[in-house]
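Weekly puzzle thread! Below is a chain. First person to post its structure in token form gets bragging rights.
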Amino acid sequence: QIEIVAGICSADCAMCTLNSVTRKGFLSIANYSTILDKFIDHLDKIEYLSLFGVGEPLLDPTLVEKITIAKQKGFSNVGFATNLTHLTAEMTESILDAGLDTIIFSIDGIKKATHEKIRRGVNYDEIIKNAMSFIGKRNTKQNKTKIIVRMIRQNANRLEWEDYKSFWENRLSTCFGDQVSVFDVHNWGGDYDCKD
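Winning reply:
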């Protein structure tokens, strides 16, 4: 896991530690390449390279270049998670063409009010539009990029999981290895109680 964007995001998520992160900025191409080079001799043991930390990867102006560099260096499964706010049509084309292997859509509700309550500052309708556009473009291009739609389950959305799962399973494709996934939010010392 390499954090290419630190402390910069287009959302203010209820469960995120972004506001307590002191590091801010983008990882330079030079430093990124240096880090990757340290793992070249171990590529056979690396299953996944995640370009993600506490920040939104799509805000990195060099994201496409970073995906391309990793693929050129032989990393076999490059991916990241995104809140989809900046997953424009142009960005979709660029990251698909760069060879992105996996993208995780962080969507935390099947209802607009639920998602926007958790991922504050985003527009649910735009998020869904961006997600559907990406799925359609990936399908049309027959690109190999795997899509994972992921819910971080917590008190605000826990009752939506079954409808959420059904909705997304009907829009993804097992031909590409797509998945719908869920995990319970870290309880941060008891602040969240997600037990059934």
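Puzzle host: Confirmed. Bonus trivia for everyone else. The chain has a mean pLDDT of 91.
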